[in-house]
Amino acid sequence: MRGGDIFSGWGKILRGKLPLLSIEITSECPLSCPGCYAYGDRHLGGGVTLTQLSDSRGETLVQGILRLVDRHDPMQLSLVGGEPLMRHRELSKLLPILSERGIYSMVVTSGVIPIPAEWTSLPRITVAISVDGLPEHHDERRKPATYERILRNIAGRKVYVHWTAVREHVQDIQYAEHYLEFWSAREEVQRIWMSVYTPQRGEQSAERLKREDRIRLAEAIPGLARKYPKLLIKSGMARAILSPPSSPEDCAFARVSANYTADLRTRVTPCVFGGDPDCSECGCAISSALHWITNEKAAARFALDASLKVAS
What is the pLDDT of residues 8-22, one digit of tens each? Predict the structure, then answer.
């Protein structure tokens, strides 16, 4: 989605719509990644877990997604999982329809399954590959979606790369240099965007960054963005990483998005992470971008608040 489209979303809000829509289209995934929020016990509020839901398949899934699209009329749709390419046949039917409707759509995948070449030539369709660190860390965390398999499965395609930085990755900023140098040199990679690991409240894990880690990363981001133009991050987003929204009620992303899980009925709240995310340590790239825009651009904050008030 183009940056200018953020502001044109106010009209949708005024009409009672939410411009951002995310759907976990399947509960299936061949990976078992540490820190994966989707499979956490609290992701759906504690009553049921993602793996306990029944998935839709075939035309039922395609039509179910289109019904949600019709209901919410989003500007941007994210199709996630699980591993969404477990439903690649359904996506091959769905993505041309979304493209024709003018809806910017992103499929977020581990790259473990070959990506149909025709997807990445469709207007307004983006495929993002999650690559969490350099091979020595990523291949262990995300096997069987190893570097070797990803490179084979994206050959000849056009993709984005998404990196979720965990504490181990930011102890030495040269780590980010090596990561960005490798992926920036790949012809297939159009853009690289980065998030910071967002923990659940009270979580104690190796993935969770400390305050000094966030400061080190935020200070390095402007220079990294200048050196590696494919890195899709602004200095203002780095500042937002240091001062994220204090709660879902203060988070522009949470306020303007609707998120559904694999049964296409249950809402994921309060945001895409579900459960009880620790907003004081939020590192979501989209949240950081919108928080920066609405906090540092008074007109944008006023428009968002006024639009949501009228829509309610």
Answer: 544 454 455 568 999
62, two tokens: 């395609």
- Rounded to whole angstroms, how far apart are CA atoms 108 and 111? 9
Average pLDDT rounded to a whole number, residues 17-38: 90
Q: What are 129's strand-pairing partners?
A: 109, 161
pTM over 0.85: yes
Helices 298-311 and 285-296: angle between axes, nearest 10 degrees: 100
Q: What pLDDT is stored for residue 253 in this prediction?
A: 86
Residue 155's CB is within 10 A of a number of other CB atoms, namely 13
**Structure-block tokens of residue 244:** 């994220």
Q: Cα separations (Å) of 301 from 17, 238, 250?
A: 18, 19, 11
Distance CA 38, CA 84 (A): 13
Q: How far is CA 177 from each of CA 93, 156, 221, rounded to the nearest angstrom?
A: 39, 25, 10
Question: Are the C-beta atoms of 68 and 87 separated by less than 8 Å?
Answer: no
Measured between alpha carbons, how far is 150 from 31 in angstroms, rounded to an integer? 13
- C-alpha radius of gyration, the chain, whole number: 18
Q: How many whole angstroms separate alpha carbon 274 and alpha carbon 36?
A: 11
- Here the tokens at position 207 are 């993935």
d(CA 4, CA 160): 20
